[in-house]
Amino acid sequence: MSRVLLPVASARDTWRATRAEFAELPGLSATAAVLLIAAAASGLVAPWVLGRLVDDVIGGADTGRIVVRVAVIAAAALVGGVLTAVAATVSARLGETVLARLRERVMDRALHLPSATLERSGTGDLVARAGDDVAQVANVLTTAGPLLAGAATTVLLTAGGLFALDWRLGLAGLAAAPGYALALRWYLPRAQPYYARERIAAGERSQAMAGALQGVATVRAYRTEREHLDRIGDRSAAGRDLSIEVFRLYTRFTVRGNRAEYFGLAAVLVAGFVLVRTGQGTVGAATAAALYFHRLFNPIGLLIMQADVLLQANAALSRLVGVASLPPVPEAAADVPEPDGALEVLVAEHRYEGGPVVLAEVTLRIEPGERVALVGASGAGKSTLALIAAGVIMPSDGKVALGGVPLNDLGEARTRRRIALISQEVHVFAGPLAEDLRLARPGATERELHLALERAGATGWLRALPDGLDTHVGEGGHRLTAAQAQQLALARLILADPDVAVLDEATAEAGSAGARDLDRAATAALEGRTALIVAHRLSQAAGADRILVLEQGRVAEEGSHEELLRSGGRYRHLWDVWNVG
Amino acid sequence: MSLDAGGVLRRTIRDQRGRVAAGVAFLCLHQASEAMVPVAIGLTIDRAVATSDTGALLIALAGLALLFTVLAFAWRIGARFGVVAVEHETHRMRLEIAGRALDPRGQRSGMRDGELLSVTASDTEHAALVVQASSMILAACTALIVSAIALLVVDPVLGGGVLLGVPLVLLGLQRLGPLITRRGEAQQEALASATATAVDLVAGLRVLRGLGAQDHAARRYAAASSAALAGTLHAARAKGMQQGVTTAINGLLLAVIAGVAGWFAIQGRITIGELVAVVGLAQFVAEPVQALGWCLQLLATAKASAARVARVLGAAPLVGSGSAAAPPAAPERLVLSGIGHGGLDGLSLRVAAGEVVGIMVYEPKHAESLVAVLAGTVPREDYRGEIRVDGVPVEELDLAAARGVVLVEPHDVTLFEGTLRDNIAAGVPDERIDAAVRAAAADDIVASQPDGLDQVLTERGANLSGGQRQRVALARALAAASPVLVLHDPATAVDAVTESLIAERLVAARAGESRATVVVTSSPALLGVADRVAVLDDGRIVAEGAHEELAASDPRYREAVLR
Q: Is the ipTM of this complex over 0.90?
């Protein structure tokens, strides 16, 4: 199945969306801009005064003049210091606030991704965007943002300062611009593919490492340490060589940057020379211009040397804007009544994107409070039918309705409130156990949480947890066993309290020993709900009101446990095999 | 052998001393040239612009060109040496850490997978940056010294002033360092925590969606994001203050130097060109001063990372290894006597060659303890009793030899990147793979892949179902054809028909006079085909016999096994 990746915003859309974010904070944006300009302007005072000082000396001024000049430089330094501090703080507040809003919206959209899109794209890309991309943009913004904003204003204002001294000196200073532009034009197209390759190499390296670490028990058992180390070594070496190569390229770029600096400086000196010689300018003005230009080396260097970082951040940003610009999940029309009644599933045919037929001619009606089990070998289409019944995917040809209201009309959000799906995928959310449970019901009291866990049969291990409900579970915390994680999933279901529950192999991985407990827990969790259960263990099926036996996407048998046993068909055979011994 | 942060950093420099020395030399040359730029500007103003001497201007421009050429290439060469050194060291440390993490004997660093990953990925990089930090410190010092000499040549009083003033500024600014570092760390932590929350929520997205809990999750992330924002702004205030103070102090320093130099120039003690050079140098010295501050921060980061690297590299192995090679096959291939560990209490068990033994464990935790002891991942001092493999106490055996005899396929199935064939058995003849695949009832999995056995697994088999993964792992265990094979709940995620198929074929696949197989399970299908079933209760074997007998005579056993 091909992966449909999530959208990436075009350069123009990225720019527009970013600008719109800043426009949301007009006061802060304006203040930051004014402060940045003022801070940069205060930096221009010193070289200008120094130029005047040179003229004073040539003109033979007295000591008093010098004192005034020095006082001006000192005052500019103090004012500049304050302005720089405030400008950096305010611009950081602006940039970081915008970023925080953006990342929150990205997560909101990511979490509300339409089910069908999620099924197609998988979570890998989303994880990368919510994690790496956000971190990358944040990093650049936090570490380089204020510096770059300061550098950009300094460059613009200093160029202005050069023109203010003498327009010819300003023009001379501009002689450096083509050099910088050419250097960038030479470098960026060459560097971009390298950065992409470098990122891929880093990803492959950490994948090799993560794979080996996660499977370290298997690696040791099969004594394949050498193989894995070799793979990690190869990947790491490939990454290293790429990094060195790209740095070589970068140093060639900086040499070009130095060349541009030289031409700019030489042009300013020559212009100053000509102006002095023709009597159109003073030595002081030439000095100030040279000092101005010398002062530009750093900010310009910072800007062009960071160009690649900015481009990478921009690429990450466009991926974020791509997700953030997804339309919010449409709410169902308000006039659709709150449905009540049976869940009806009608699948004439279902196939995944032009693949083979997975389900055909399946009709299923589950009355309120009824419990239906799906039985069949792997690949019979049980999980697909569960996804369809839960409204997560739509059948290619067919319909699903709850209480007569098609799920399409009901909308995703309302469907989810009525129909819950516990899939095979178990995930324990990192953080305190109570927080995990409160994802299902945010306002739940501790008592409710305890009750839910108790019904899910988790009281035993809950008591053994070091900090009870406050115990940190999931990644980086206390590790729950597969069975415990499944009981947790059932407890969440109890807290979410939907009318309809679809259980897909929720107890499959438990191991025989604890499976009976899980069966009991599932029964308790499903009490009073309309339920569709994908049963691997026939004991789950035996307890259901009705059983559907699927074979190659079609319903082979249907009836209660006793009826099916009596009829002596497929189910009877499965039951006999199940009970060997 | 204990290794600390300083040790890791020193070793890094020592191993790369050639490159570091060359890099330092060129970077120093670069900084010296940078320091000469304002002097050159001053000379040009003095000798060419002020005098309107065209010849002097041409000479000055040529001199400047030479200076910039030296400057550019010195940086290019020096920086390359530095980066090559850093990259090579990072790579080497990465491999060392991977080697420790995958050491057959295990390791006691106490770090979780995630931590180990971040140590390999980023701490190695940061620790290796010590090369850059130390070269840049030397280069910045060179720049300062060259500036000082130039200033002393112009005028001893001015030169002395700069030499005194700059270190004072440096010391003053450094007082802000700890505050910034502290806030920066807090901010990084808050950001990392928000990112981790995002990744965790998205990874569990299907679970959230199943319950319609996306809104709550989004609110939870928003809270984490706000906390990160608050931390960032807190840090930004400190950083902003530092920038402001730096700007102000540099400006004041410039004012003082310009004032004194201007006064000297009026008195004729120095020339106009010297005045310009002094002012230019005073502007320039701020750079190496700032670079020094930055390098000190970099060193602190490198040190913190090096400490984590050292923690892994210096970690003691978890289990020991004997030195004896694998002994010849004994009639009793595996003998456990009086094992006590994690709930096991005096467990004794003999597994003879040619046998398939089923072990029914009432308490899942005891099954895990038993499997861990058999896998040889429990330190000797953590379990009582004795394990003999082919008659030899297991601790006397070389670890690799012991694992070569006893293979334990973990219950938590992990597949690796690569093809199905790579996962089942790289380098094993096709017939054996085919046989193992059939025995594990995994033929339909292979058949359903477009490329069969050569199908590359995506995301390490994440697209396979739990049952499919279990069967691939079982095929892998069978293909290894190990003398003693230990399986732990090998078919819990497959349907009943497949399970009984596996049970039948497993016995056939493991047939052989010298082979022994242990299956820890409560599946009646698997227990039914075992030659003998041992029942583990209260930490020891309480009953032994054929599955049918036990099922007929022991109601508790029947209750636990039959359904």
A: no
